[in-house]
């Protein structure tokens, strides 16, 4: 059985005031059809950054992500229509309609 989500050696680093910060360090996992998947961990563990990369909103520094066989770096236009996420934060653009705020 092929995974619906396939993450291999995912890394995300940021530059903050000239200092390199690693938010996600060599994360790998698979999610298969029918599974319910979530991530838990302390603040600053990289959960939100990982989901931001899975939803194609942020590009990884290195590693690979496949969603339903589509490469997240090269085929994000194929991935966005088939995924969904419920964030803990309210993320609305108050001046846009729902149709206008599509990513």
UniProtKB/TrEMBL annotation:
Name used for this protein in its record: ABC transporter domain-containing protein
Family: Belongs to the ABC transporter superfamily.
InterPro entries: ABC_transporter-like_ATP-bd, ABC_transporter_ATP-binding, P-loop_NTPase
Originating organism: Methanosarcina spelaei
Keyword list, A-Z: ATP-binding, Nucleotide-binding, Transport
Transmembrane segments: none
MF (Gene Ontology): ATP binding; ATP hydrolysis activity
Domain ABC transporter: 24-100
PANTHER family to which the protein is assigned, alphabetical: ABC TRANSPORTER ATP-BINDING PROTEIN (PTHR42711), ABC TRANSPORTER ATP-BINDING PROTEIN NATA (PTHR42711:SF5)
């Amino acid at each position: 059985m092929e995974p619906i989500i396939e993450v291999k050696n995912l890394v995300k680093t940021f530059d903050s005031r000239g200092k390199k910060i690693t938010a996600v360090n060599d994360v790998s996992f698979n999610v298969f059809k029918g599974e319910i998947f979530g991530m838990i961990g302390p603040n600053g563990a990289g959960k939100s950054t990982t989901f931001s990369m899975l939803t194609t909103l942020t590009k990884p520094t290195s590693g690979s992500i496949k969603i339903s066989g589509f490469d997240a770096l090269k085929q994000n236009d194929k991935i966005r229509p088939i995924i969904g996420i419920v964030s803990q934060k309210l993320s609305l653009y108050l001046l846009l309609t729902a149709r206008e705020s599509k990513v």
